[in-house]
Amino acid sequence: MCSRILFPQRPIQVLVADHDSDNRWLCTSLLQRAGHGSVTAEDGQQALALLAEYDVDLLLLSIALPPFGGLAILAQLRSAESTALSGRRQRVILVTGPSSPGDLAWLRAAGADGCIARPIDPVCFDHEIARVLGVTTA
């Protein structure tokens, strides 16, 4: 069970990349409720284009994002970061189906900063974003 959290003082900008329109709606609604902004993508190509266009604080990335999957996008991001001069690392939370603690360890080893399992619990959603952003829990 997740506890209530303290979100960042300043609004954050999040790219929500999910092929499912209901999940995109839920994530953007939860972010808006907390005073944050979002842009959305329904496939991997659109997500990569938006990442190049917008400076986002966080990427919520569906593991099943077409056409090549969230893990492939994550690998591409981490590879580009390893050769970039900026030293900036994009924070990424993968959105998965129901998961086990072993799945979480595997996804973090693949380069994810966090994981949110479907069905999305609003309190756990807030908690995981706060944890990834380094915000203290209440």
Task: Indicate the topology.
Layout: E1 13-17, H1 21-33, E2 37-41, H2 44-53, E3 58-62, H3 70-83, E4 92-96, H4 101-109, E5 114-117, H5 122-133
Parallel strand pairs: 1-2, 1-3, 3-4, 4-5
Q: How would you describe this protein?
A:
With 138 residues, this protein is an alpha/beta fold. It has one domain (13-133): Response regulator (Rossmann fold, 3-Layer(aba) Sandwich), CATH 3.40.50. 42% of the residues lie in helices and 17% in strands. The chain is built from 5 helices and 5 strands; from the N terminus they run βαβαβαβαβα. It has helices spanning 21-33, 44-53, 70-83, 101-109, 122-133, and strands at 13-17, 37-41, 58-62, 92-96, 114-117. Strands 2-1-3-4-5 form a 5-stranded parallel sheet, with helices on both faces. β1, α1 (21-33) and β2 form a beta-alpha-beta unit. The longest helix is centred in the middle third of the chain and has 14 residues, at 70-83. The model has no long low-confidence stretch (mean pLDDT 88).
What percent of residues are in strands? 15-25%
Distance between the termini: 14 Å
Per CATH, which architecture? 3-Layer(aba) Sandwich
Oligomer: single chain
Count of spatially separate domains:
1
By secondary-structure content and strand pairing, the structural class works out as: alpha/beta
Write the element-wise H/E pattern from the N-terminal end onward: EHEHEHEHEH
How large is the radius of gyration? 14 Å
What is the makeup of the main sheet? 5 strands, parallel
- The shape is globular
